[in-house]
Amino acid sequence: MGSVNNINPKTDLTVRVFDRFYTFEKSVPADEYDAVNSFFRSVFTTAQAAENFTVTLFRVSEQAKIPVMNLLQQMQGQDQTQINLTLSYYLNGLRSPSTLLGVNVTSVPNYYVARNILN
Prior knowledge:
Elements: E1 14-19, E2 24-29, H1 30-43, H2 47-64, H3 68-75, H4 80-94, H5 111-114
């Protein structure tokens, strides 16, 4: 008779992480997913926020070629605001410079370029 704690070696121990908006999809080890998701659940108040940040961290990990556990270790001990700043830093490296996250100062184009832009 099987136990609840016994692992079935015939099942795949990975989790599929995906984001429909950015068409991001990746298979990750279940233990890494659980570690990242439980960390974000301890920091954020809603499960949806934790899920979104979990997917984002795996996306940053793949794009920046940094192991997800190293990124998670950097975030240990940070609050929500500091985590937002850390992820904004990494996401800004992936995005177009014209759509940076967390930047309050708007870019002022050169006068001669700006006058050629139609609204």
